[in-house]
Specification:
205 residues; 8 helices; 81% helix; single chain
Length: 205
């Protein structure tokens, strides 16, 4: 394995760093979205009843897990619970917008890795071919086959490595984009339901 890594030339080091960074981001996002799915299945439906039944302890309930977007949004907006419906709606909208970077976290990192990895592979290809051609002397019968094939091997390995890193990162990135696109309507629908429940609660007071 190490011999294959060495044969790819110096571009294999930045490609390795890109792959490790992509793996770290992917693991963090998998944990993040798994946690959201768990809360959606087990906690989401109890948020509004908890708010209606016990407003005083509602903040403590929300601080149970601040990584859950709905909890985080409501923590920021509930400060305006005593305000008008319009003000509370604006507070919810603002809190939702502030949560967007968390939901889209690592998107730019994935985009950068997807773009730069094939370019690094291409750079390794060019350098490997240049290295190979430098051992070919036109007009001479003898050619250093080992050095020539070594340069070609460097070109092929670096290209393959760059494509593997880019393709893998692209798959992760698209998966997390799908999760975001699936979750956003769920959050928006719940916030509407929460506003309605709050309005009905205030009417009874």
């Amino acid at each position: 394995m190490w011999s294959v890594f060495e044969s790819g030339g110096f571009v294999m080091l930045p490609l390795l760093l890109c792959s490790l960074l992509s793996l770290y981001c992917a693991i963090e996002r998998v944990i993040f979205w798994s946690n959201i799915k768990w809360h959606n299945d087990n906690t989401k439906e109890s948020i509004i009843p908890h708010y209606l039944n016990s407003s005083s302890s509602f903040i403590n309930f929300l601080t149970d897990d601040k990584t859950y977007p709905l909890f985080s949004i409501l923590i920021k907006a509930i400060k305006y619970d005593k305000c008008s419906d319009e003000s509370f709606h604006l507070a919810l909208s603002s809190a939702l917008q502030s949560e967007m970077p968390v939901l889209k976290k690592h998107t730019n990192i994935f985009s950068t890795i997807i773009t730069i990895s094939p370019l690094l592979g291409l750079l390794g290809t060019v350098l490997g071919l240049i290295d190979s051609f430098s051992f070919i002397n036109l007009g001479q019968a003898g050619v250093n086959n080992i050095k020539v094939t070594g340069g070609i091997s460097e070109a092929l390995v670096s290209t393959a490595a760059g494509l593997i890193v880019a393709i893998t990162s692209l798959m992760f990135s698209n998966y997390f984009k799908i999760e975001f696109q699936r979750e956003l309507p769920i959050i928006q629908e719940f916030l509407v339901q929460f506003e309605i429940a709050r309005t009905e609660k205030n009417k009874r007071i």
